[in-house]
Design brief:
Blueprint lengths: L1 H13 L2 H7 L4 H15 L4 E4 L2 E4 L1 H25 L7 E8 H18 L3 E8 L1 H9 L5 E5 L7 E15 L10 E2 L8 E5 L5 H5 L7 E6 L2 H9 L5 E4 L4 H6 L3 E5 L5 E9 L6 H11 L2 H4 L4
Parallel strand pairs: 3-4, 3-5, 7-11, 8-9
Antiparallel strand pairs: 1-2, 5-12, 6-10, 6-11, 6-12
């Protein structure tokens, strides 16, 4: 029963039979069989499929709320029973904004899984607001966001600071510079990766206004637009390391800021974190020298 409830929760979270099946090392037909068996046991249809979306029935909403709590408590029980052995095992759900999840976390997750191979680490890429919602709803244990905002039900831990750079195409007049002043950005055509890095929020305390040519919900598309000369963009330096090395983009420092953004970790204040979650947070907040020897 617990397994079926966990599969149901994963299906709703991923909105994909294929992804939920892969996450649980099942075939799609096997997942469908589990769902059908759960519906028959409870006597209610839980989901309706249509146009690529999985919609919950009224019964499905009620079952989802109960299932999340049941699965969470069961996982806590499993972890508590295993903790006396000092063995780090169990499922760990982490949610991160795209840029951190795609560009920063891989090196940390590699170290973590090397030391704790029995942990089932599930990393989900979410928008900033979705990370807060997922932590508060207990769908994930650890959330990772840009410029964390205080919340009465959340604990915030500093993770790191990211250097922000201006990217320009290699043939741009500024391509030979190492840095630019903020005032130089006034009136310039900009490509905005609006999902989690709004330019207007960075510059709202200044008198600088840029011309937003395009706003994309994807940093990769943003980079491609800059490469072909559609505008400039402010992005975290780590997201353009490969392009700078290949020479398809030039990265310029901001001489007079804002040059950094803070990245923070979110957890629920009253939640008892699992041992895998505590170990993962320890790794992310450990001094640089301690990370490779983390245990």
């Amino acid at each position: 029963m617990i397994r079926s409830l966990r599969l149901f929760c994963d299906l709703v979270q991923t909105q994909s039979f294929t992804e939920a099946a892969q996450r649980n090392y099942l075939t799609q037909p096997a997942l469908s069989h589990h769902l059908k068996a759960l519906e028959e046991k409870l006597g209610h249809r839980l989901v309706e499929r249509g146009r690529g979306q999985i919609r919950l029935t009224r019964a499905g909403v009620l079952v989802l709320e109960a299932s999340q709590e049941i699965v969470r408590r069961y996982e806590q029980l499993e972890n508590a029973l295993k903790e006396p052995t000092s063995e780090v095992v169990g499922r760990l759900r982490v949610g991160s904004i795209y840029t951190i999840g795609l560009y920063e976390l891989p090196r940390y997750t590699s170290i973590f899984l090397k030391h704790h191979p029995k942990v089932d680490l599930l990393l989900t890429y979410l928008k900033d607001t979705e990370v807060y919602e997922a932590v508060l709803a207990d769908r994930i244990e650890v959330g990772i966001v840009d410029s964390p905002k205080p919340h009465p039900q959340l604990t915030i831990l500093p993770f790191k600071k990211e250097r922000i750079v201006l990217i320009v195409p290699p043939k741009h007049p500024w391509a030979g510079k190492k840095q630019v002043r903020l005032a130089q950005l006034h009136g310039q055509p900009f490509i905005v990766p609006q999902a989690e890095f709004p330019v207007d929020e960075m510059l709202r305390k200044t008198n600088i206004r840029v011309k937003v040519m395009h706003a994309f919900d994807n940093i990769e598309i943003t980079k491609r637009a800059v490469e072909v000369g559609l505008g400039l963009a402010l992005v975290p330096r780590i997201t353009v390391v490969d392009e700078v090395q290949r020479g398809t983009l030039k990265a310029l420092d901001l001489a007079d800021g804002p040059a950094d953004r803070s990245i923070g970790l979110l957890t629920r204040k009253r939640a008892e974190l699992s041992l895998p979650a505590r170990k993962f947070i320890d790794l992310l907040t450990a001094p640089l020298k301690a990370r490779t020897s983390h245990s």
